[in-house]
Amino acid sequence: MTSVVHFTLLLALPPLLLGVINKTKAWFGGRRGPPLLQAYYDLARLFRKDMVLSRTTTWVFRAGPVVTFCAVLLAGSLLPFGSFDAPVGFTGDLVLFAYLLALGRFFTAAAALDTGSAFEGMGAAREVSFACLAEAALFMGLVVLVRFSGALSLTPMLHAPALAAPHGLPAAALFLVAVALFVVLLAENARVPVDDPNTHLELTMIHEVMVLDHSGPLFGLVLYGAAVKLFLLSALLLHLVLPFALGDPLLDGLLFVGGMGAVAVAIGVVESVMARLRLHYVPSLLIAAGVLCAFGFVLTLA
Amino acid sequence: MPSPLSLELAAALCIGLSGAPGGLWRRSGAAGQGIATALNVVGSVVGFAGLALHARAGEVESLRLGQLPIGEVAFGLDGLSALFLVPILLVSALGSLYGGSYWREQEHPASGRRLRLAWGIMTAAMMGVVLARDAILFLLAWELMALAAFFLICTEEERPEVRQAAWVYLVATHAGTLCLVGFFALLGQATGSPALWPSLSAGGRGALHTAVFALGIAGFGLKAGLMPLHVWLPGAHANAPSHVSALLSGVLLKTGVYGLVRVCALLPEPPVWWGGTLIGIGVFSGVLGIALSVAQQDLKRLLAYSSIENIGIIAIGVGLATMGRSLGRADFVVLGLGAALLHVLNHSLFKPLLFLSAGSVLHASGTRRIASLGGLARTMPRTFALFALGAVAICGLPPLNGFVSELLLYVGLLRAAGIDAARGTAWASAAAPALAMIGALAVAAFVKVLGIAFSGTPRSDAAAHAHDPGAGMLAPMALLALACVVLGLAPVVALPLLHAAVAAWEPVLGNAAPSLAELAPLRQISVAGLVLLVLVALVAASIRRHSAAPAHGVTWDCGYALPTSRMQYADSSFSEMLVGLFDWAVRSRRSTPDLIGPFPPPSRFGSEVPDAVLDHVVQPLLRVADRRLSPVRALQRGPVQMYLLYVFLIVVVLLMVAM
After folding, report:
1. CB contact at 8 A, B4 and B53
2. Strands (DSSP E) found in B299-436
3. Between A289 and which of A176, A183, B533, B636 could a Cys-Cys bridge form, CB atoms 3.0 to 4.6 Å apart?
């Protein structure tokens, strides 16, 4: 039963997150903005469309969105949502979680280069370069969480009592990790200040430019997969920000959905009040995130 | 029923002599080549039969065949030797099959016979290295292996860069042998016998043990290609024929790893810093090796640097296991050594696969420059598919075999972070983020190769007219690829081999050793991999059903309708940002054009990435040594009589000292 709910949330909610982000940005800009459910309409439209393929491309181009989407979905089965356990969990599943996201990145970037376009090449180069720093920061953060919880599996790790009521040094370490994970979330999902999903200049984009050539159902998969990835990293972050359980399944569910909405609003606020960083400063931001996690690690040694 | 060890020795003899009968045939005939390949394959089959018998009997064997002037001809077969025999036998046989088409006797009459002779000798010598149980015998096999590798590397001796690479290799390998002579001398002094591999008593002198460890790391690390001792590796791998590169990278480096693993087993309770040092060296090698790999513009050099990275990963695992030995933690031992040894197997599958694919590209297009290739995914679809599979595997991505060994290592490192671990080991878990960074950099390096060399449109005529090789070259590659898939989806098949090796390394554990299957989620990994494959197939089928006939057009180059192949992203641009991040280590050289005046003349941009350690450390040191030590050269006049006199004088001096 819980796994049915888990997969329903995993499949149904992610596009809503995009809607909340866009509404927040519109509110900041004094606009009415697109409807909250716009991402669902877009997906429904894209999945009904035909597609255009470049003559340069091969099977890799078509495999890119498919593999990425499946990998992200499989990763979603490992992560607990709120106070509910993940349907699947085993020792070391956090590594599988991170590596499934990496598999998605591998195929997205390979599909981008398959078109032979210089713009998509630039996007792919940026994606794989920034990921080197983001991955290191993510794992440093995970090491800190492992040290607190003593568990090597996502569900017991994120539901550990040590996370629920930290005080003193552990609280400081967890705070640092939460900040770093938020930066990683912004970078991995190509949000401001790392990438601007709304820009219209291909030269400056990262994720959007990699998928320029995808169209129709393939592009639908790309958008859907990206939304799910955003959802997953937000849910991971939420465990650090809202580590409570109310005890009642219904209330807990509402808390989770509300918390996810709050993370989306936070992303929207960051996008509204900040400009995109120059590309050369992005590594510094990610290194800073890694250093925060490293400080958190040092605090755990004390 | 012959004993497994005697089967292995027969296999070594058969493979070692495989190149010899060809010497009796005409140079241009194919018969000599056919015989060599056949003997090689037969030898491997015999060797694998021996391994199967050994696995069933499950006992440690030893055999003494006679006396050397000093030491004796003693061989032995235990779990550790058996594990390292697998890549030797497999890659040697598949490589020689591949060589039948890649290095045809008719096309290379001058070098073919020598190559096959050295190939067999090197394989047999490597088998000797892992089977030897006497220090002198070990050193003899080690030298034979090193020299045979030298002749393999300088197969194309007419090209100056080949001669230089072979020369650097020869110097490096002898520096390593020098360390090993010292290592075995000290080891013999500590134990009083030349028998290998002894256990030192815990109560011995610390300084002696430290010296033994340092010399072992230096000597074996040079062969394994650990940073910064890797200077010989990129040139040698890049300039040897591709199936030789596969043998060097897939197997020769592993003999260095074998030595490292044995060194760490010398003491029953080594100091904690032994393991810590190895983890540190492994992280250093891994991160910088793959950072240099991303920067490379030569397909085979890129693969060579990635070998340094993989050896780094293996060293982290060995370090963790050694730490477990110091602390009496069986889980660190099993996970660390299990990860390292499984990675040894894995790397000997996907790296030869990648080198053989690169060889097919070189064979078809005549160039190793990534920037001159492109579009091979269309012209060489089979090679491309195999290379892509190897790339996913070497990046450690699920559902292939690279992921399994990295997962074991992660689980081990994260256990070191657990709250019950002693404070000293918690630091070891900081290697986990480094491993994550290594993985992400590997993705960057191999996406670059796939995307620039194989995807897009051809950047040269040669690339445009490339074509897939014949079955003789594709079949060995396909077998390696199949092995990668099997080990990725069903890693449990490697468990008996790994458990036997761990038991040989840490006999104290005995039957109490926890199984890898208990410590790591091997079955869940298999299920996850299968689910992923099924999911991909389902989604792909539904996409295919919904879009029956896609329209075809040009690539959307922001509205530009006539893109040419020269407008594609280049390899050096792709890696520019990462090269910038790691420039303190990579030290790339670039020549940027001076654009002067409103109408600048035609100008060129160029960049190259030489080996920083070789160019900035080793060569300046050697130049200084060359200058300072020139007076010594007066002793080196050339006549043999002089050298005999030196030998005589030294013997006299030694005798006087001894009395």
Report:
1. yes
2. none
3. A183
